[in-house]
Structure formats: structure tokens, C-alpha cells
Design goal:
With 165 residues, the protein is an all-alpha fold. It has five helices and no strands. It is 64% helix and 0% strand.
Length: 165
């Protein structure tokens, strides 16, 4: 029982870290405008549909992916963590597929890497009850966040680039 509570607490902490990292990575980061306002850590990107030089469809798909990834930090630890994580991962995979369709080959290497990381996270979630399972899931979650940030950064610097304030 104590081990289960510890596992839930660690996963909740990892999920919270995930949201913070994604918010920091997906905010107003590498734009060539004068606004460099990612210091808050919880800023969401203002690069929403039609606000940049690229396709509104791509930016909408990116926003949806960010929203789904942020749900990793909202897992209810009083319920079945594995089931909640698996459902969220499925949503992320669908959103990633939609983004890949909208963006085409432009972010293919980044999308492929994120798909690989999601697959590793899925496997790690399935093994949560085993020795080292929490550590593997935490590491895999970190990889997903890193790779999701890479996708967002790539699109933020091209398709979803912000224009002025």
C-alpha cells in the first residue's frame, strides 16, 4: 500500500514536471520579435490558428497536441494511473498523427522521434508494477516532453511563428 502511494506520488510529480517543461519549451521562445516572455514557466504559446505566417491547420493541430501533452500532468492519482496514462498517450498519438498530416514532411524527423518516445512510454506504463517501472516511466515521460518540445519549437520557428504583439 505504501509502495502504491509512493508510485502515484512520483508519477504525479513527474507529470507536473512534464507540464512545466512543456510550457517552458512551447512558450514564446526562439522568435525573432522583441517579446521574450517565457520567464513565467506556465505561459502557453500565443501561436494559435492563423496568428503566424503558416497554416492555421498546422497551428491548430499543434495547439491540440500541446493540450493533450499537458494532460500528462493532470492524471488523477486516486484512480488507475496506468489506465489514465494509457488513455492520455492514445490521445497524444492521435493528435500527433493529425499534426503530422497537417505539417507534412516539415517536422517528420521530430514527429518520428516523438512517436518512438510515446511507444517507449506506453511500454513503461505497462510495466509500472515491476521493479524499476516508475523510474522507466519517469525517464520515458521526460523523453516524450523533450521530443514534444522539439516538435513545437520547430513549428514555432516556421509555420506558427508569431508576428508582433
Amino acid at each position: 500500500m505504501t509502495t502504491g502511494n509512493w508510485t502515484r506520488a512520483r508519477l504525479a510529480a513527474a507529470g507536473l514536471a512534464a507540464v512545466v517543461l512543456l510550457a517552458a519549451g512551447c512558450g514564446d521562445d526562439n522568435n525573432s520579435g522583441d517579446g521574450n516572455s517565457s520567464a513565467g514557466g506556465t505561459t502557453t504559446t500565443e501561436a494559435s490558428s492563423g496568428s503566424g505566417s503558416g497554416s492555421g491547420e498546422v497551428c491548430d493541430a499543434l495547439d491540440q497536441l500541446k493540450s493533450s501533452v499537458s494532460k500528462l500532468g493532470q492524471i488523477d492519482t486516486s484512480e488507475d494511473v496506468s489506465e489514465s496514462l494509457s488513455s492520455t498517450i492514445d490521445d497524444i498519438e492521435q493528435d500527433l498523427s493529425d499534426l503530422a498530416d497537417a505539417a507534412g514532411d516539415e517536422v517528420k524527423p521530430e514527429v518520428d522521434q516523438l512517436k518512438s518516445s510515446l511507444s517507449e512510454l506506453k511500454s513503461a506504463v505497462a510495466d509500472l508494477g515491476t521493479e524499476g517501472g516508475v523510474r522507466a516511466a519517469t525517464n520515458a515521460l521526460g523523453d516524450v516532453l523533450t521530443d514534444a518540445t522539439a516538435v513545437a519549437d520547430k513549428l514555432a520557428s516556421t509555420d506558427c511563428k508569431q508576428t508582433g504583439s
